[in-house]
Specification:
By secondary structure, the protein is an alpha/beta fold. The protein has 2 domains: 358 residues, 3-Layer(aba) Sandwich (Alkaline Phosphatase, subunit A); 60 residues, no CATH class. The protein is 30% helix and 13% strand. A hairpin with a 6-residue loop joins strand 10 and strand 11. Helix 1 runs parallel beside helix 3, helix 6 runs parallel beside helix 17 and helix 14 packs parallel to helix 16. The protein binds 2-acetamido-2-deoxy-beta-D-glucopyranose (NAG) and zinc ion (ZN). The site of 2-acetamido-2-deoxy-beta-D-glucopyranose has 5 residues, from loops. 2-acetamido-2-deoxy-beta-D-glucopyranose binds next to loops. It is found in: Cell membrane. It holds the Pfam family Alk_phosphatase. It catalyses: a phosphate monoester + H2O = an alcohol + phosphate. Belongs to the alkaline phosphatase family. Its EC number is 3.1.3.1.
Length: 536
């Protein structure tokens, strides 16, 4: 009944609006030239805002509108030309768990907040080149962040939960992990070997899987400190934990900028945390933060900070080495507004300012790591907030660097099971309810997960056991979160955006392991083909 009524109303609305002259003309520029930041107060919690009528909008966006818009889009496409130069700098933006559905939803949310709605354009969408990226690992169709980091940072696929080692190293195999012939060198290391500066920025622990892909070689992503190895009766004397590899390792110890969370992996048990957390977690009594300070102070101007205000007050023009560990563990979700934490954008600014001092060039890895963390909790509002923070950092890096010399890529390590589904009206908030079930008549949210803690089972919480079903049946119906006679559409894919020298190497579809090979070519570092024909 409800649907029929809605249909009648929709037809009436279209008929009525067809006679109304278009209230807004075609435009390339946003109607409201405010950033979404200016409007954050409007509805960060996503309450339904008085939206423009979708039907009215359809009338506005007639043939004339689309002709003009799409001709302009065609002109933009025709104007693209590759920048065939050596990439002096590379900034690698990694949105952890940032599926295409996440990017789409983030765009819809930002557009909702700016008033541009579906016409919003994200900073990375202005990049001229993009490519699809295949993410399977050496042993799994669906990868984790560790194996993916090995591939997209070093150029070879590894096994699930291993980092910086090739597929010869099985999970937790300490002996194999210590075999240097299985170690996969990262592009970050290639930059170091070429005498350039390097940095890592994340909102997770700096020893977490994605950032660790830049500097660690380990058979187990969870071996972030020695206590993690002792817990599984491993030998931390034999197999160095990731924090130790960051501070003492051949690659880790040369990183000039390290910003993120994870103090507990660096400090010993019994040492209090400055923000009152659970204190240090190391068994070996080492304070690796102090070690880092001692090491770097003799090399140049070195700063360790753990509070946003200290980062913002930093004299980056005179900083050679910078470590900032802003949380005991992962940094807080942006949606929780922890004032002791800098934003990803603020950390990215500090990192670029320090690294740009090197005339030889730099490699910077920036991870929007909490997008994935929020998705794991099925908290899509938080995930989208993180995705908007990620975009701000990308926009900043874009504005701070010259496309003639800095290659910026933006990609994800793997998808998350988030779908944008149902038929929500144009101009509505993607975080809201958007459509109705045609079985029970109940509404459902536009954003949903196919798995995770958000599952709502039958009233008594019992989920039918699929192994008791004939899942080989050609007409077997896969489990769904909402009962529907026929599904309403959903979409999914994984993408890489690129701008700068040799960004055009990223078109079509590629393996995640291809990425470092293309980066090395563009920057003329490491092994393999180089753009620069001969080097001394
Ligand atoms: C270190 O910082 C001081 C100012 O705090 C500055 O005078 C000096 O030049 C810096 N050294 C280097 C090597 O940048
Ligand atoms: Zn994850």
């Amino acid at each position: 009944m409800r649907l029929q009524l809605a249909f009648v109303l929709a037809v009436a609305a279209v008929a009525a609006s067809a006679r109304v002259p278009p209230p807004r003309g075609p435009q390339r520029e946003p109607l409201i030239k405010k950033t979404y930041k200016d409007q954050d107060h409007l509805d960060v919690m996503g309450h339904m805002r008085a939206s423009k009528s979708a039907k009215n909008r359809n009338a506005v966006e007639g043939l004339g509108y689309w002709n003009q818009q799409m001709q302009a889009e065609l002109q933009d496409q025709l104007a693209k030309s590759p920048i065939v130069k050596q990439a002096k700098n590379i900034i690698f933006f990694l949105g952890d768990g940032t599926s295409i559905s996440t990017l789409t939803a983030a765009r819809l949310l930002k557009g909702h907040l700016t008033g541009n709605d579906e016409h919003e354009v994200m900073a990375y969408e202005k990049f001229p080149y993009s490519s699809l990226i295949k993410t399977y690992s050496a042993d799994k169709i669906v990868t984790d962040s560790a194996a993916s980091a090995t591939a997209y940072l070093t150029g070879a696929k590894g096994n699930q939960a291993t980092i910086g080692v090739d597929a010869n190293v099985l999970l937790s195999d300490c002996d194999a992990m210590n075999n240097p012939s299985y170690h996969t060198p990262s592009v970050l290391k290639n930059f170091q070997d070429a005498g350039k500066s390097t940095g890592i920025v994340t909102v997770t622990r700096v020893t977490h899987a994605s950032p660790a892909g830049n500097y660690a070689h380990t058979a187990e992503r969870h071996w972030e400190n020695d206590d993690d190895i002792n817990d599984v009766e491993g030998d931390p004397e034999k197999c160095d934990d990731i924090a130790e590899q960051l501070v003492y390792g051949a690659t880790g110890s040369q990183i000039k900028v390290i910003l993120g969370g994870g103090r507990k992996k660096f400090t010993p048990k019994g040492v209090d945390d400055p923000e009152g957390g659970d204190g240090g977690k190391r068994d070996d009594g080492k304070n690796l933060i102090q070690t880092w300070i001692d090491q770097k102070q003799v090399l140049g101007n070195a700063s360790y900070v753990w509070h946003r205000e200290d980062l913002l007050a930093l004299d980056t023009a005179n900083t050679d080495y910078l470590m900032g560990l802003f949380d005991w563990s992962h940094m807080s979700f942006a949606i929780d507004e922890d004032t002791s934490n800098p934003s990803l954008e603020e950390m990215t600014r500090a990192a670029i300012e320090v690294l740009q001092r090197d005339d030889n060039g730099f490699f910077l890895f920036v991870e929007g790591g909490n997008i994935d963390k929020a998705h794991h909790l099925n908290e899509h509002r938080s995930a989208l907030q993180e995705a908007l923070e990620f975009e701000k950092a990308i926009a900043l890096a874009d504005s701070m660097t010259d496309p003639e010399e800095t290659l910026i890529i933006v990609t994800a390590d793997h998808s998350q099971p988030l779908v944008i589904n149902g038929y929500p009206e144009r101009g509505t908030d993607v975080r809201d309810l958007g459509d109705f079930s045609d079985v029970d008549g109940l509404p459902f949210t536009t954003l949903m997960y196919t798995n995770g803690p958000g599952y709502r089972g039958e009233p008594h919480g019992e989920r039918p056991d699929p192994s008791a079903e004939n899942y080989y049946d050609p007409h077997y119906m896969g489990a769904a979160t909402v009962p529907m006679i026929e599904s309403h559409h959903a979409g999914e894919e994984v993408i890489l955006y690129a701008r700068g020298p040799h960004a055009h190497l990223f078109t079509g579809i590629h393996e995640n392991a291809y990425i470092p090979h293309a980066l090395r070519y563009a920057a003329c570092v490491g092994d393999g083909l180089h753009f620069c024909p001969t080097e001394a």
